[in-house]
Amino acid sequence: MLAKEIKPGTIVVHNESPCLIESVQVQSPSARGGATLYKFRARNLVTKTKVDITLKGTEGLDDADFKKREVSVMYQDAEALHLMDTENYEQYALALEDASNELQYMKEGQDGVLALIYNDECVGINIPATVELTITQCDPGVKGNSATGRTKPLNLETGLQIQGPEYLKEGEVVKVDTRTGEFLGRA
């Protein structure tokens, strides 16, 4: 896969280890004939370390040999998040620190979660781009507050706090963008 085709969320092989691309920065050349540089910030999925990769536009990396399995969230304990394959009922455990960003958008029994399986071990998860979560606590809405663009903090069932419109009430279900953590609308 060429450097210009690699996007955030792609899993590639770098130094014989699978790496999840987290961000991409493109540097255009300032002189004629200069090569465009692609700088990638990645996370090694085996050692869990951050990796910086710099490539020219004509260079590339291989796709990682991964299995993506649809899983359901079973439960979470002090050390790990426990997942179950929805097809063959195989169970996986993923360390909490490896799923810290995704945990704030996940609840037990949530569907649409993909486990990244490498050498028969779960090394990461992918969650849907949007999730629906229930508001557990927020300031009461006041009649007439829907005309302005003001927002208020909303506490959601997973412990995540986001900003949302003033007219929302406790118990309502809202859509949240998992990439940015922003309110998208009512569910």
From TrEMBL:
Indicate the segments forming the Translation elongation factor P/YeiP central domain, all copies.
68-123
SUPFAM superfamilies tied to this protein: Nucleic acid-binding proteins, Translation proteins SH3-like domain
| Elongation factor P C-terminal domain span | 131-186
One GO MF term attached to the UniProt entry? translation elongation factor activity
The record, for InterPro entries, names: Elong-fact-P_C, NA-bd_OB-fold, Rib_uL2_dom2, Transl_elong_fac_P/YeiP, Transl_elong_KOW-like, Transl_elong_P/YeiP_cen, Translation_prot_SH3-like_sf
**Which of UniProt's keywords are assigned here?**
Elongation factor, Protein biosynthesis
Q: Gene3D superfamilies, per this entry?
A: 2.30.30.30, Nucleic acid-binding proteins
Q: Write down the SMART domains for this protein, in alphabetical order.
A: EFP, Elong-fact-P_C
Q: Name one GO biological process term.
A: peptide biosynthetic process
Instruction: Show the GO cellular component annotation of the record.
Output: cytosol
A Pfam family in this protein? EFP_N
The family annotation for this protein states: Belongs to the elongation factor P family.
NCBIfam families the record matches: PRK00529.1
Name under which the protein is recorded = Elongation factor P-like protein
The species this protein belongs to is Posidoniimonas corsicana
Give the classification, highest ranks: Bacteria, Pseudomonadati, Planctomycetota, Planctomycetia, Pirellulales
Which gene carries the instructions for this protein?
Answer: yeiP
